[in-house]
Every structure is written in C-alpha cells, then in structure tokens.
Amino acid sequence: MPKKKKKKPTLSPTIKALMIILLLPVTVTVYTITIITWQGIRELPIVNQLTVSAKQFPAKGDDLPEEYIPIYQQAAEAYGIPWTLLAAHHRIETRFSTMETLVSPVGAEGHMQFMPCTFVGWSYPGCGGLGKGNIPDEDKTDPAVIEKYGGYGVDANGDGKADPYDLEDAVFSAANYLSKNGAAEGELEQAIFMYNRSDDYVQDILYYYRLYEERWKEKKKEEQ
Fold first, then answer.
1. What is the mean pLDDT of the chain?
2. How far apart are CA 151 and CA 62, in angstroms?
3. d(C-alpha 175, C-alpha 86), whole Å
4. d(C-alpha 193, C-alpha 205), whole Å
5. What is the C-alpha separation between 133 and 140, in angstroms, rounded?
6. What is the pLDDT of residue 49?
7. pLDDT digits 0-9 by tens, 116-132
C-alpha cells in the first residue's frame, strides 16, 4: 500500500504573531544601519562631488543673465573666441558673481577667479606655487605692471586699472587668457584645461558652453 504523505506542520496564528513581534526589532535595526551606512557613503568626497556636480546642471540655459551677454560678446569679439565660452566660465567660477565671496580658498580672485600671479604675470617677484604671490593692490591693477610681467589682466573699461573685481575687466581678462591658450584657434578643451587643470572642470565648462550655444540658437529662431 502506498504510504500516506505526512502533513507539514503548520504554525498557529499565535506563534506567527510572536515571530513577527520578535523579528520586527531586527528589521528596524537592519533598516537603521542601512540608512546610517548610506549617509556615511554620501559624505565621502567622491560621492559628494558627483552629487554636487549633478545638481549644479539646470535643464535649460535659462540661468544665463541677459545683462551680461553684451560684455561676453564684446570680449569674445576682441579676442576671437565664442562668447558662450566666457558665459560658461563665469557660471562655473562664481555662478555669475553670486557667490558669497569672490576669493577662493586658494587665493583666486574676482568674477572670473584669477590667481594673482596669472593676472599680473608669473615673472613678478615672489610668484610661485599656486600663484597667490604677495602682490600689492596698486601693482595688481596697474596695466603697466601687468604688461611688464606678462600677465593676462586687461583694463577693459579704460579707467586706468585692470581690476579682477570689475566685471568688464575680469571677463576681458578671461577672454585674453583663453584666446592665448588655444581658444582663438578652436582648441577649446586645451584652453579650458589651461584655465583649470582638471578634466572634470573641462567637462563642466563644455556642458554649459554647449547648453548656452543651443539656447542662444533657439532664442534667435524664436525672434525671427
């Protein structure tokens, strides 16, 4: 005769309820540990950098202040580079001059974040390292001093000073720098990399450059 199959033991509702009660603290503990671990991972520099980099990109190019466009265009025309490239640098460097301070932790200054030695010239006495130098304000903004030491600072508005804290001077100086480092010949990536020697920086600038190029073309079509 065939053997009767043994019925699998079933748990009573009371036992099931007890097991749920007992497992609940374990589940909560595991969940809590997971959240804490993820928060810790998010604080790691590489993860934090990726998060910040992703958040800084808008969906459109509507963040570009229209009142600055004439300055970008004039500087770009003077040095033979795309004005949208200047807009991209201004966006990345100081978020269109809306940062709380226009001095970086390493000493870069002004609207377009020039290191003093780059602005005045690396042959200026005492320039070295990252380029902060020890340059008196009167020399830092003196066009004659800048010309003497081979700097990139420009007196764009003709007031007798090349001032990194003056928007026109800063944008024209950035155009001067980018132009002489390859942008005038179409070597945009090279010029951007020379501005800040970081591959991530190059990609960030190119992102905004292309964004503003596209947005400007769309705007021109809408106006026609």
1. 85
2. 34
3. 7
4. 10
5. 10
6. 41
7. 999 999 999 999 999 99
CA atoms within 13 A on the CB side of 147: 6
The answer on pLDDT for 24 being more than 80 is no
Name the CATH code of domain 66-223 (choices 3.20.20.150, 3.40.1390.20, 1.10.530.10, 1.10.1040.50): 1.10.530.10
| Contact criterion met (CB below 8 Å) for 56 and 201 | no
Q: What is the pLDDT of residues 191-200, one digit of tens each?
A: 999 999 999 9
Residue 48, pLDDT score: 42
Q: Return the structure tokens found at 179.
A: 């132009």
Q: Is 86 exposed, middle or buried (0-12, 13-18, 19+ CB in 10 A)?
A: buried
Sorted by where each begins, the domain ranges of the chain are 13-55, 66-223
In degrees, to the nearest 5, what angle opens at C-alpha 76 toward C-alphas 137 and 66?
A: 90
CB-count exposure of residue 143 (10 Å: 0-12, 13-18, 19+): middle
Q: Which of 85, 73, 155 is nearest to 119 (CA)?
A: 155
Q: How far apart are CA 200 and CA 59, in angstroms?
A: 19
- pLDDT of amino acid 61: 67
Q: How far is CA 94 from CA 76, 97, 170, 208, in A?
A: 19, 5, 12, 14
